[in-house]
Structure formats: C-alpha cells, structure tokens
Amino acid sequence: MTNINKDLLRERERCNFNPTELTYLLDGSPEKTAKRRETEEYFLSDPELKDDIPASYLSHKEVYENAIRKGCILLRKIQYLQEQGKGELDMYSQVLGGMLGAALLKDGNPLTLHYVMFIPSIMGQGTVEQQGYWISRAWSCNIIGTYAQTELGHGTFIRGLETTATYDPTTREFILHSPTRTSYKWWPGGLGQTANYAVVVAQLYTQGECKGIHPFVVQLRDEETHEPMPGIKIGEIGTKLGMNATNNGFLGFDHVRIPRENMLMKNSQVLEDGTYVKPATDKLTYGTMVFVRTVLIRDVSRYLSKAVTIAIRYSAVRRQSQIKSSEPECQIIDFVTQQYKLFPNLAACYAFWLSAEWIWIMYNNVSAELHHGELERLPELHALTCCLKAVASSDSASGVEQLRLSCGGHGYMAASNLPATYGLVTAVCTYEGENTVLLLQTARYLVKAHRQAMSGQNLTPTVQYLSTMANAGKKRPWRNTLTCIVVAHQAVAAGKIRLATENMDQRIKMGESPEDAWNHTSIELMQAAEAHCRAFIVARYIEWVKKLTVSHELQQVLQQLCETYAIYWVLQRVGDFLRFSCLVSKDVPVLQRRLEDLFKEIRPNAVGLVDAFDIRDEIIDSALGAYDGNVYERLYSAAMKSPLNQESVNKSFHLYLKSLLKSNL
Fold this sequence. Notes:
By secondary structure, the protein is α+β, with helices and mostly antiparallel strands. Helices cover 54% and strands 8% of the residues. Strands 1, 2, 3, 5, 6 and 9 form a six-stranded mixed β-sheet that branches. Strands 4-8-7 form a three-stranded antiparallel β-sheet, with no helix packed on it. Strand 2 (164-168) and strand 3 (173-177) form a beta hairpin. The longest helix is centred in the middle third of the chain and has 36 residues, at 336-371. The radius of gyration is 27 Å and the shape is globular.
C-alpha cells in the first residue's frame, strides 16, 4: 500500500462523519458509485490512454494529434461496451465531462461538440425524417459534426450574424455565403481539422426577404479524402489560454450550395417554391443552448471540486510559518486566512452540484412539456440556466484562481494541475453565452416578473418571492437562522430588481428611448440578475439540507457548509443586505464571528469532505492533490519529466552560453 503522508492520515482519522456516505449521496446510490468507479477503471487502466510525456512539453500539432488518437480509442471502447450490453448513454457524459473526460484528454477533446452540440441540434431542430437520416449517421460516427454559430465579428448577439443562406427555388437549394471577413465562423470546437459536417447558423433569405437566423446541415469535407469541399474555407484558429486540443476552427463559404432538405425544419420551413412557414414560437430556438448551459453548470462544479481537493489536501500537508513562536511550523490549513480561501469554495462545490441536479430535472420536465406543445415554463428555464451558468462559471473561475493562490508558488506549476483547470473553467465564462449578456437575458425575465408582481398576477415558482418581498424586506428583525438568511437574499434580489426597473422607467419618463434606458440601467440589471441567482442557489441549498435523510453527523457537516455559503455571500455583498434586507450594522460583526466559528467546525472534516468527491489520482492529475499527500516526491518526479532534464548539458551551452561566459563582458 502507498505510504500516506502522516498529516493526511491524521486528518482522516479525526473526520467525524463517513466520507463514503457522502460519496453515495453525491453519486445517487452505492450502485451508481460502483458503476462510476468501474467506468473510470475501464478507461484509466488502458495503457493506450496514458501519456508518457506531459502535454505541456508537446507542440501544438502533437497535442491535437494525440487528442484525436485518444478520442478515437475512447469512442471504440464505448462502442465495445454497448455491444456487450454494458454501455449506457450516461457514459458519453462521463467520458466527455469535466471529471473523467478532463483526465483522459487534459487539454480538451476535439470530438466533444459532435455529441454536445451537433447531435442535440439535429434532435431539437430537425424533423423526424431529418433526425432519422442524420442521427443514425452521427451516432455511428460515419460523420463527425460540429456547431458553427459564432462568427469572427459576432458572438452572443446571434441576430447580428452575417453568414447568409439564400434559397434558390429553381434548383431547390440554399446558397451559403460569407460576405465579409467578419462573417467567417470562428471558435467551433473540432472545426479546424476534425469535423466533416456542421450545423451552420445563417441568415435565411427567401423570396427577397430576410427571415432571420436558421440552422442548416452543411458538408465541410469529403467523406473519403477529408479535403475541404468546393467553396469551403476552413482551418484552425491557433493556441489559446487553455483547451488547445479542442481544435477550434474558422469557416468561410464562397457560394456553397446545399439541398433544401439540409435546412433543419422542425420549427420553421421553406417550401419548394420558397414560401416561408414561420415557427409557432421563436422560443423554441432556446433548446440546444439551454441543454448545453445545463450541462455546463454541472461541469464547472466538477472543475471547482477538483481544485478544492488539490488545495485542501496540499494545505493539510504543507507546513510553513508559526502561529505561536514557541511551537513548530504548522499546517497552513490552520491559518484562518487560508480557511477563508478554502472553505467558501468547498461549500460552493456542493451549492453548484445540487443546483445542477435541480436544473437538470427541470430541463427534462420542460423538454417533456415541449413535446406536448406546452411552452409556459420555457422562459423560466431559460432565465434560470442563463444566470446559473453565468454565476457558477464566474465563481468557479475566480474560485480556482483563489485556490491556486492558496497553494503559493507550487500552485503556479503545471504539475499542480491548477493552471490547466483554470484554463478549462474560465473558458466557460465566455462560450455558450458571454456571462454579462446572459445575466441581462435573465434580467429581462425579472423585469417582466416584477411588473407582473406589482399588478397582482401569478408568478412562476422561482420568482414567487417578488410578490411576498414587495414590502416585507425590512419589517422583521434579523436572526442568524437559515430561514432568515434565505429571506434576506430574496429581499436583496427583490429590492435590486425593483430599483433597476424603477430607474429604467424613470429614464424613459425623462425622454430616453426604452433601448437607451435599458443600456443605461444595465449595470443595475446585471447585478439584480446575479442577486436573483444567489437567492435561488441559497434557497435550494438550504431546502436540500433540510430534506436530507442521512446520518446525523453528515447532516451536521452539510448544514455547516450550507450556512458557510449563505453567510459568506451576505458578507461579500454586505452593502446590499444593509440596504434591502433587515440586516443592520450591529448584526455584521455577529455574522463575521459566526463565519469564523463555522470554519472551526468544518476544519476537522475538510479532508473528509474532499475525499468524499472520490476523485481518482489520475483524474486530479496533481502533484499537490494526490490521495497519499506525498507532495514533494511527486513535484520532483514531475520535474524530472522535463525534456531539459534528459541530458546533463543542453546544446545551447556550447552554441551560445559558453562564448558569453568567456567573453569577459
């Protein structure tokens, strides 16, 4: 058995709950834990999927080629399991997701968008006939697809896309064209050298009129030679902060013709003569984006849990400085300033995990309703996924960076896996909707809900508090209870939504156009959407903890985490709570002391709480965060993998350095 660091051993011995019980809770059951572990073992034990040389020492071209090699092995292994009756659809999410997926392909997967965007787009926007043709080819990997929406000149503002698809009734074809350099598609994963098909979003023109953006299936490369099709200008966009194996690409069209049937026509159609049949509602275009954002919330919680595991284990092993001069150097996890970096992020992991679970259930329920033509809850789902994706990704990105800083200089090393994790999670802040824009989308829903509340109309469940908080925010005295903290978060959200709406209306009364008034109030609107999201997360967190049927010990530690998260954000936004809730100045020091007391209560269980994530060493992939805690041995071993350490003297000495040393400058 591996020799485990004595400090980590002691931490595990003093843990007062059973981490395995929490692991089962997070996975859903002991059987699901066993299944997950079996899947991880199946993939991670394959020698063909292991890297002899760390990716940071490879060229950009080698990183991509290795990712394609491994990606193809992964898909064949999944196919083999399915042939044996052991493969499940959920396995794709495991292999492509932020835990196992990021361990197998550490710098991104060029095949991800095939499953996450290409196939879901066809399923959500194609007719039954189109689904039957394209999905069968895509699932069997006879074709590899991507999703080409973002352009060089336009991202989140999809109405501004420049790529055109003009219908020619004489040939019953669409002509796709990129009229400007800024109309080139830019960023789609797998587009550079991997995909041979794409769902392309373009402005539809028929009978001389523009009908707005619509999706089209377009062949990009020859199925045999993989050469670009005539009129297709395609390539890779180059290196980035992270995800350099994702093979992000560019795509231009020079009057490329595709059959009329290649327009995805589930929601809107172009008839053979060019007649346009509009969709029953434009809200149906939310579908694919809502699905991806729902998945991303779960992914960023996994990235954060990985970073928290690394930082907490390292903090238990690392001894530096003294609290008392008469005592030896202490574990840095004993410094309260270190706990302040670690424990709120640990609490956030669980907050985002359960929010992801909640929104996933809602997504599936609303999707089922859509099949029956029921659209009532789609705007609420859209608003929630927008703000949750924005807040979870932003908090996780800043959290990973804070956790990296908590590991000092060693956290800066690639061997810690914290820089790479940051590169993966911070990318989420931009793709599938830039976070500021997403918060403003949520704000539109909230302004409408506020107006409905003021007129006495019924509200959807997640904004119901706008009715009850209209005048109740400051009436009750402050109590340091979870119920009080939920009400306070809702009071802040309601107050900020009300104030933003009133300020916008005031600008309109003063003569501004509604569009200008919205823009000039957009900071307040964005902050109101964030407050709404935090109120939602805190309410779900507390509701979840109260309903748990687990051991008393586990219930207690999860409640401590829940309270930590809720109080932390009160103190982070204390001005808002003093302004809109019943919190008063004398309550703030009491809350601060309570947060510090919670840190003391969490401290003995910190290692147990990250052990409960049950993340294998191969997935953590960190010299600082391995289960055995042998940090310094692993750092040295990682250093010895550097190509510069494979020879005692590098040739640059003889070429350059030696002459400098002898030149007597």
